[in-house]
Amino acid sequence: MTKPNPRQMQINIEVPPDLDATYANLALITHSSSEIIIDFARVLPNTPKAKVYARILTTPLHAKLLLRALGENLEKYEAQFGEIKMPDAGANLAQQFFGGVRPPDKPE
């Protein structure tokens, strides 16, 4: 005999209308024994530093659930828009982000 599925609680999520989106093109990830910390930063071409704009602390379980949700959404994205091409595995981080960008020539 199988047990009936327990009733799942509905959670209403409130997104404030004045909430600003934050753009990030770099994530720095670290962890302790009980937390995963993700810092979202923005790197600009020809700028030697990045600024962190948001920090998320979560449990390892929730990080793994997020990883699964991102994977599912990327599969749907690629089904609709085509494969996302990854940079060359041998490239360094700067080349991966800004492979086609180079600084202006110096005046002579």
Helix content: 25-40%
Quaternary status: single chain
Overall 3D shape: extended
Give the SSE string.
EEEHH
Low-confidence runs of at least 5 consecutive residues: none
Label the structural class: alpha+beta
Q: Report the count of strand segments.
A: 3
The major beta sheet can be summarized as: 3 strands, antiparallel
Provide a count of the helices.
2
Overall average residue pLDDT = 86
Side by side, the strands of the main sheet go 1-2-3
**Head-to-tail CA distance between termini:** 84 Å
Polypeptide structure, described:
The chain is of the alpha+beta class. It has a domain at 26-85. It contains two helices and three strands. It has helices spanning 60-81, 93-98, and strands at 26-31, 36-43, 50-58. Strands 1-2-3 form a three-stranded antiparallel beta sheet. The longest helix is centred in the middle third of the chain and has 22 residues, at 60-81. It starts with 25 loop residues before the first strand and ends in a 10-residue tail after the last helix.
